[in-house]
User: Which sequence fits this backbone?
């Protein structure tokens, strides 16, 4: 594929890429690249079909993670482009394997590429060798840069120095250390104290305004409640900054926020709002009114739950839409057996020495592996048989991890409290409760209910 001779009528796509670091350090701004490419196209009387700009994206990222490159390749497949132009080869790729994946698409559709500041000819063996050498050099340079940056950051973390100049509300940086901001310290401390007492963001905001004259926005308040910095952990390092609350209080806040009741415009009571979760993506199930037709031909409505990751974002494979009535019936019939099994698990776990496991982190690792496995299959690096084998192994480990977590001492509820609630005949008392009372009953006893793609339910009791 020669790139020197360009027909004036060629339809060219101008590709620009810059990472944040490169833009700041080397001045490789989007504007500079675009101006150079536009000037070249005008000088050579080239018809520009579009600009494709991947801003703040590293050249080491795979093509699948570059939105504008994906748009460009789609236009290539649709026959809208004859030539792709960029300033230098390292703007295109710094990864040999990724380069050849994209090159295969270009060759299939007879699309050439050209750099305006460098000279390449991929129609000869020596020309292709030059491309390989330059990509190898660029890849090695990127690896070394990444290692240097990681070493610098590791050193900063060991010295408990922040790796960024941005810190949460209530803190500031002084002499390479994160300290409490004297101007906001009282307000932040008041906010957390008020929230822990009331469990209400709105009450905490108003209390802070009344006592300190500071009114945090609702959005900022939600962010503050989720940040580890307020118990002293910042950038993954404990003790990086002075704490406003304890770690136990932070975990208590998170548990409360996960279980926060969502109100509806119609004031309809959803029995399991806030405690139904997807076993696949970990997101909370959303609740809604589901209209359906029964065998008699009549239409009825019932409350149902489904995964927000599936129906809002489209990135979860759990399609289960489950009726509230189905969940309630399952619990009424199976909670006693679930509790007996759970108590046995607790007794067995107490007699065993188990290594400490961060279950959310382990689940996240497995889900990341599943995502990478999918990319390998889509890119035809592995075949279907290997994909299925590895997929089944990883999903089996995910299910096993869920069962292990139920037995973990850190998540174990007090069995005596639960056994006193679920005594003989509790179902008779339950059916006489009003809906708000039933909702409170489940929120008092259950931590969460996992819904699996097989429609199986896994119950976790509340600590």
Assistant:
């Amino acid at each position: 594929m020669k790139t020197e001779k360009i027909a004036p009528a060629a339809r060219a796509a101008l590709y620009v890429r810059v990472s944040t670091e490169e833009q700041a350090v080397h001045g490789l701004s989007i504007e500079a690249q675009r101006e150079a490419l536009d000037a070249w196209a005008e000088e050579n009387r080239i018809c520009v079909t579009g600009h494709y700009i991947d801003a703040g994206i590293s050249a080491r990222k795979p093509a699948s993670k570059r939105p504008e490159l994906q748009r460009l390749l789609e236009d290539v497949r649709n026959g809208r482009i004859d030539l792709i132009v960029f300033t230098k080869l390292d703007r295109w790729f710094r990864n040999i394997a990724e380069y050849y994946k994209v090159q295969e698409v270009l060759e299939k559709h007879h699309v050439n590429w050209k750099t305006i500041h460098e000279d390449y000819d991929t129609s000869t063996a020596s020309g292709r060798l030059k491309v390989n050498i330059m990509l190898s050099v660029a890849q090695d340079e990127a690896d070394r840069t990444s290692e240097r940056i990681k070493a610098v950051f590791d050193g900063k973390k060991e010295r408990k120095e922040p790796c960024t100049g941005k810190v949460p509300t209530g803190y500031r940086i002084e002499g390479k250390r994160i300290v409490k901001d004297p101007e906001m310290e009282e307000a932040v401390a008041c906010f957390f104290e008020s929230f822990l007492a009331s469990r209400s963001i709105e009450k905490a905001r108003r209390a802070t305004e009344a006592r300190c004259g500071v009114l945090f926005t609702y959005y900022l308040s939600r962010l503050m409640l989720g940040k580890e910095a307020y118990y002293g952990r910042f950038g993954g390092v404990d003790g990086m900054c002075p704490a406003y609350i304890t770690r136990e209080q932070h975990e208590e806040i998170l548990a409360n926020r996960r279980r926060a009741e969502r109100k509806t415009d119609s004031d309809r009571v959803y029995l399991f709002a806030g405690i139904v979760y997807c076993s696949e993506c970990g997101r909370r199930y959303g609740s809604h009114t589901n209209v359906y037709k029964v065998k008699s031909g009549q239409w009825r409505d019932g409350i149902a739950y489904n995964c927000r990751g599936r129906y809002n974002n489209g990135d979860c494979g759990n399609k289960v839409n489950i009726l509230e009535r189905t969940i309630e019936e399952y619990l009424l019939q199976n909670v006693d057996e679930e509790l007996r099994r759970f108590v046995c698990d607790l007794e067995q776990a107490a007699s065993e020495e188990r290594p400490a496991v961060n279950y959310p982190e382990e689940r996240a690792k497995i889900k990341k592996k599943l995502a990478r496995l999918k990319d390998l299959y889509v890119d035809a690096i592995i075949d279907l048989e290997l994909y299925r084998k590895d997929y089944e192994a990883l999903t089996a480990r995910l299910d096993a991890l869920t069962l292990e977590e139920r037995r973990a001492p850190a998540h174990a509820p007090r069995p005596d409290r639960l056994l006193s609630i679920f005594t003989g005949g509790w179902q008779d008392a339950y059916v006489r409760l009003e809906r708000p009372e039933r909702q409170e009953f489940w929120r008092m006893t259950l931590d969460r209910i996992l819904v699996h793609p097989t429609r199986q339910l896994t119950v976790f009791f509340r600590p």
In short: The chain has a mean pLDDT of 80. Residues 125-158 form the longest helix (34 residues).
